Description:
By secondary structure, the protein is α/β, with parallel strands linked by helices. Helix content is 46%, strand content 15%. It has helices at residues 3-18, 27-55, 58-63, 99-104, 114-124, 129-135, 144-152, 223-237, 272-284, 288-299, 303-316, 321-332, 335-339, 352-361, 373-387, 394-402, 406-418, 446-456; strands at residues 64-76, 79-90, 96-97, 171-182, 188-197, 214-217, 245-250, 267-270, 434-436, 461-463. The protein has a five-stranded mixed β-sheet with strand order 6-5-4-7-8, sandwiched between helices. Strands 1-2-3 form a three-stranded antiparallel β-sheet, sandwiched between helices. The chain is elongated and about 90 Å long. 25% of the residues are buried.
Amino acid sequence: MEIISLINEFTNNFNKTFQNNLTPFNLESKIRDVGDTFTLKLYESFLNYIDEKFKYSEERKNLYYIKETRKRTLITSVGCIVVNSTSYVNKITKERYVPLRDILYLNPYQRLTNEAEYQLIKYSMDENMSQSARHALRNTIISRSTVSKKLAKLDGSINEVITRCPNQPDVLYIEMDEIHANLQHGGNKICPCAIVHEGYVEDFVKRKQLKNIRYFASSDLTYEELWEVVFDYVNKRYDIDKFKVIFVSGDGASGIKNYTNCFPKAKFVLDPFHYMKKHLRYIFKNNFELRNMADDYIRNDLIDDFKLLVQSQIKEYPHQEKYMKQHMNSIINNLDGIKNQKDKDYKVHCSMEGHINQGFARYITSSPFGFSKRGLENKLKLLVYHANEHDLTIEDYYNLKYGNDSYKEINININKLTNIKYDQRLSSNHSLDYKIDVPIPIFDRPTQNNKLNELLAFRGIKYI
Length: 464
């Protein structure tokens, strides 16, 4: 690989860029642009060097005929590059072989490199897919649909290790809710989600934080199947038989309350937000006296008195009778869950609404675009990894795309092709001194001039 020519080209490009209109305001942008250009040229030179090295190797001469060499445009994580790609024909099997595909592990007609795809997917764990399409790759903007298609092709999974909890808590909290997603070809998909935690890290601070929180979400699983996943985690993480009590909280939906097969001794707690803000407030509006009276009837099993109170409200708002009765029935069906709000061991009010919005809903429910079924599940999978503070590595991405442990095999094959030493000795015809023939800008303050001189004092480069 011609390092010397690259440095010469970098020097000439530097001189050309800095000759005109150099000011303190564009200094940083010019340095960035020169660096980006050099990075792309370096990448192109590396791949061209590998291509040429294989072309003239004894292995190639023994096994392959040269078919053709073409220019190939690739979208990388650092920008677009154009490289030479030579294809060959096996002398025995007559099969076509393209080394560039093996080096970068590309499929035929694949323009995005796997590193670029990895950056897109990793960025979409933090932001929506439109933001990922615009900002994940340097100097390159792609379409949102491209990100969606790449996301939908992830069929693998990441084997996360669940460690045993060193200090068994007395109380465990499981909170569950659901989010709604729009599908591409119409319809709405209900996605159950849950969190498991041990209570507050510190309960005396204003901004409270949950201890050892774990997130779960899926569009493929039903409530019952998600409960099995939650149970599997709890069983690996804790000794279930040693809990004093397990609290399950939510809005009272039938799927949320269907936990008894996994946690038969758990206590259900109706989310206070849904109880007070959604049900009682709808029935009794802003009449706090009636709300408190209704709450007192409910907690003391005076259900007939509660129904009479609701009937009095229906007379005031007859057009809302249907919905008032629905809210009344929801309250009556969750009497035990309401009473358990006052349990002496229940010290952490359900905060599922906030966690759902922060971790999932703002990416899924609020999205104006529809998801494919596979893309929705993969998006939720990535959001769960992110919420659980899993840092997605390139190895994880290969496992998600090609299956578990595929990265090891891919890495071995790539090493066979790229196992070349790139050390290049300088001959006597080359000098270590490269002159960058541009004037250094002069600032108003001496400290700024000294700082600039320090930044430009690269080894082996002289400024005149």
